[in-house]
Amino acid sequence: MMPAVQIEGLILSGRSNDSLTEIVNNGKLVSDEIIINLLSKRLEEGEEKGELGFILDGFPRTIRQAEILEGVTDLDLVINLKLREEALLAKCIGRRTCSQCGGNFNVASIDIEGENGGPRMYMPPLLPPPECESKLISRADDTEEVVKERLRVYHDLSEPVEEFYRARGKLLEFNLPGGIPESWPKLLQALNIEDPDNKRSAAA
Ligand SMILES: [Zn+2]
What we know:
Blueprint: E1 4-7, E2 10-13, H1 18-26, H2 32-48, H3 63-72, E3 78-82, H4 85-93, E4 95-98, E5 104-106, E6 110-112, E7 121-123, E8 136-137, H5 144-167, E9 171-175, H6 180-190, H7 196-203
Parallel strand pairs: 3-9
Antiparallel strand pairs: 1-2, 4-5, 4-8, 6-7
Helix pairs in contact: 2-3
The structure holds zinc ion (ZN).
Zinc ion binds near residues 98, 100, 132 and 135.
């Protein structure tokens, strides 16, 4: 995988772009125009450097952004990663941060029955080392009520965007079967990409 920089839900593969990071870190509200201008500048730079492609994570979030983006670049594919709501909810509520070192952990242990006869979903917790155990804090807004409301808002915003790309034949729906170890090979399969790690271990 290429190194990726995450900028508040927006991932640009390749090298980091200081100006974008600064803008997002310094102000919470970034207008669509600013984001799209910086994005198109970054894409042009990448093309000049010979980058073969890019991945945007969590962007566009609105129809308006999707429409402006369409005028800037032609996306090959949009992947809608879906996780069962009970697992999402548990993962959000289980988030913990170490108040001393800032490490991020998750105490949720997810083990739920498969849907429609599907396989069980198991996602182990990401537990802190002993020295962090007594210093864990959770975000005040990671409560069931608030997370459910955030999910509702997310669905209201994302459904039209999903429809936008579905109508263009570009939307791939992908139901996450569990954590990264189960999901990664299945996602590569869905994308018709050979897993470089599997190849290596097969050759060893
Ligand atoms: Zn710690």
